[in-house]
Amino acid sequence: MKVQTSGLILSTGRTGTMFFASLLQEIFPQAAVYHEAGERSRLINIFTHAHLSGFLPLSVPLWAWQRVIAIDLADCQKEVYIDSNNMVYALLPLKPDLYPGLRVIHLVRDPREYVRSHINWARHRPKSFVANYLTPFWQPNAWLLKEMTWSKWMGLSRFERYCWIWDFKNRFIGQLAESEIPYLRIFFEDFFGGPKPLARFNEMLAFLGLERAIGIEDRFQRPVNPAKGKSFPKWQNWSAQQCRQIQLICGETMHTYGYGNEPAWLEKLKPSNGVAT
């Protein structure tokens, strides 16, 4: 038996990818389910960012993929292979034929919550601090990708950089919506805090060719892999400057995804509050 369907759940990170991998592993033992192929996908992430920045040929991240994922994929004896893996978000649009029967799920989270979660995660978890602050090419770089001048990129605060990272990664993954690859966009908020999380989950399962799940509504109330520490506040407590910054960097993409329509948010963006719209 060989893999017939490969389901890749791609995102910016801090979107519940570990939760989905854990839940799918539990309720679908007939599928091979991974979260970031263990911790081995990190080199793929780093090398792909270096490639996009012009420092490495595409063959290098592909070599890492062959060493990290291809062997397990070739040896897999189950028909359905699922990897909930934000580390391959940039490689997949460049080389979508790596996976047999590929189907892509694009998991999106409100940028205001993503930025808050990622800042708290990087601040309070040593490994994440090293990765995000000290490891070259762990995150994309707007200057190297020619989306900003050097002076503008270097002048951004950590908050603003995470805003841009959210925007870039979602735009990059979103390219697949215009390809021939089956693509489904789902939203973090539909599962965690939404009125019908199981209905949305079953939509995802149908997309992957899996049976409907029943009686697991309570699972969406249990946090998995939460950020340690809550030092960075929710957007309701942000300064006018922070609201302006995320609006300027992420505004077009966030509104495409339906974020930023709350009356309280729109009030913060009024010129009378010192924030440009």
Description:
- With 277 residues, the chain is an alpha/beta fold.
- It has a single domain, classed as Rossmann fold, CATH 3.40.50.
- It has twelve helices and five strands.
- It has a five-stranded parallel beta sheet with strand order 2-3-1-4-5, with helices on both faces.
- The longest helix is centred in the first third of the chain and has 17 residues.
- 38% of the residues are buried.
- The model has no long low-confidence stretch (mean pLDDT 92).
Strand content: 5-15%
Percent of residues in helices comes to 40-55%
Taking the sheet with the most strands, its summary is:
5 strands, parallel
* CATH class label: Alpha Beta
At the fourth level of CATH, the homologous superfamily is P-loop containing nucleotide triphosphate hydrolases
Indicate the radius of gyration in whole angstroms. Answer: 19 Å
Order of helices and strands: EHEHHEHEHHHHEHHHH
The CATH architecture term is 3-Layer(aba) Sandwich
Report, as a whole number of angstroms, the end-to-end distance. Answer: 56 Å
Question: In short, what is this structure?
Answer:
The protein has a single domain (5-273), classed as P-loop containing nucleotide triphosphate hydrolases (Rossmann fold, 3-Layer(aba) Sandwich). 46% of the residues lie in helices and 10% in strands.
Q: Secondary-structure map with pairings?
A:
Blueprint: E1 5-10, H1 17-27, E2 32-35, H2 42-52, H3 59-75, E3 80-84, H4 91-94, E4 102-108, H5 111-124, H6 126-134, H7 150-154, H8 158-174, E5 183-187, H9 188-191, H10 197-208, H11 240-256, H12 263-268
Parallel strand pairs: 1-3, 1-4, 2-3, 4-5
